[in-house]
């Protein structure tokens, strides 16, 4: 069974290829980290997979009607904008309502609890800090309670503890049998929490496998242009970038 199937997804901007024939499938139980340098095409790949931007090739999600897609996949974009001064509880409930469920559906309380937001539930969402708002928006996506969650840099701007907590939440979803696709820049977080890593480089999928198989010194140099110190800890590997290769 596949939660997402892409077949030769390609897209160009101003005659420059941004996605080059990306084919892959995402299965239940996978927490897939999407890695790549700035501009590699991570956001574009997720948006094209969701049908939010036009691309050639096929995506199993892009051809769904909006209501079907809302029941299949929750999407957390990179831009974190909370426009209305509503309560945290109400904002999270919009996730449930996106798929036609009631504001008090159990998925809403579960999402608030999962993201540790009970102390904030009656606060005005626009008055929260940037990192707190990021957790609220992830909670809204969780409240949609879908088989697949796609999140674009959900831990950017979170403090280290909240990054770990958020990654644990995403991994737990996968361990429960859902699928997760999450773009990240922290190689250690990706290695420790994801079951599988995809690496994009200049719009091409250049690696797809376990963190151990993917995050080699050669790949870090060739794709990310870094020499990194790897430390193996009881929690898993961490990577400390030390120098660039090219200059
Ligand atoms: N509308 C557009 N017009 C021109 N170029 C675009 C457009 N949208 C995206 N691009 C280019 O496509 C490439 C991929 O962008 P994308 O946002 O997918 O990268 P990313 O891997 O998510 O990067 P980051 O890590 O910086 O978020 C970039 O070079 C970007 O400049």
- How many domains? The number is 1
Name the CATH homologous superfamily: P-loop containing nucleotide triphosphate hydrolases
User: Beta fraction of the residues?
Assistant: 25-35%
Distinct ligands, ions and cofactors found in the model? adenosine-5'-triphosphate
Number of helices: 9
Textual characterization of the structure:
This protein has one domain: P-loop containing nucleotide triphosphate hydrolases (Rossmann fold, 3-Layer(aba) Sandwich). Helix 3 (88-97) crosses helix 4 (106-114) and helix 4 (106-114) runs antiparallel to helix 5 (130-143). The strands form 3 sheets. The protein has a 6-stranded mixed sheet, sandwiched between helices. By secondary structure, the chain is α/β, with parallel strands linked by helices. The protein is globular. It contains 9 helices and 11 strands. The protein binds adenosine-5'-triphosphate (ATP). Adenosine-5'-triphosphate is lined by residues 13-14, 18, 36, 38-44. GO terms for molecular function: ATP binding; ATP hydrolysis activity. Residues 4-227 form the ABC transporter domain. It comes from Gemmobacter caeni. This is Iron complex transport system ATP-binding protein. Keywords: ATP-binding, Nucleotide-binding, Translocase, Transport.
Give a concise summary.
This protein is of the alpha/beta class and 247 residues long. The protein has helices at 42-50, 66-72, 88-97, 106-114, 130-143, 160-175, 187-193, 211-214, 217-222, and strands spanning 4-13, 16-26, 31-35, 56-59, 73-76, 148-152, 179-183, 196-201, 204-209, 226-233, 236-244.
């Amino acid at each position: 069974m596949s939660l997402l199937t892409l077949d030769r997804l390609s897209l160009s901007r101003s005659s420059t290829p941004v996605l080059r024939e990306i084919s892959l499938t995402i299965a239940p139980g996978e927490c897939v980290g999407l890695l790549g340098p700035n501009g590699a095409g991570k956001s574009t790949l997720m948006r094209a997979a969701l049908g939010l931007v036009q691309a050639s090739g096929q995506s199993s999600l892009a051809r769904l009607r909006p209501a079907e897609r809302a029941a299949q996949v929750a999407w957390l974009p990179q831009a974190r904008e909370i426009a209305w001064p509503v309560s945290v509880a109400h904002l999270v409930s919009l996730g449930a309502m996106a798929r036609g469920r009631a504001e008090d559906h159990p998925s809403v309380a579960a999402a608030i609890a999962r993201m540790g937001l009970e102390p904030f539930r009656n606060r005005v969402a626009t008055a929260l800090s940037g990192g707190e708002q990021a957790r609220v928006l992830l909670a809204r996506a969780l409240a949609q309670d879908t088989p697949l969650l796609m999140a674009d840099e959900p831990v950017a701007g979170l403090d280290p503890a909240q990054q770990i907590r958020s990654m644990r939440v995403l991994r737990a979803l996968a361990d429960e049998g859902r699928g997760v696709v999450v773009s990240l820049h922290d190689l250690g977080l990706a290695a420790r929490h994801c079951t599988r890593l995809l690496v994009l480089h200049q719009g091409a999928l250049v690696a797809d496998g376990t963190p151990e198989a993917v995050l080699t010194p050669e790949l870090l140099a060739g794709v990310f242009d870094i020499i990194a110190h790897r430390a193996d800890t009881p929690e898993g590997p961490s990577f400390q970038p030390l120098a660039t290769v090219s200059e």
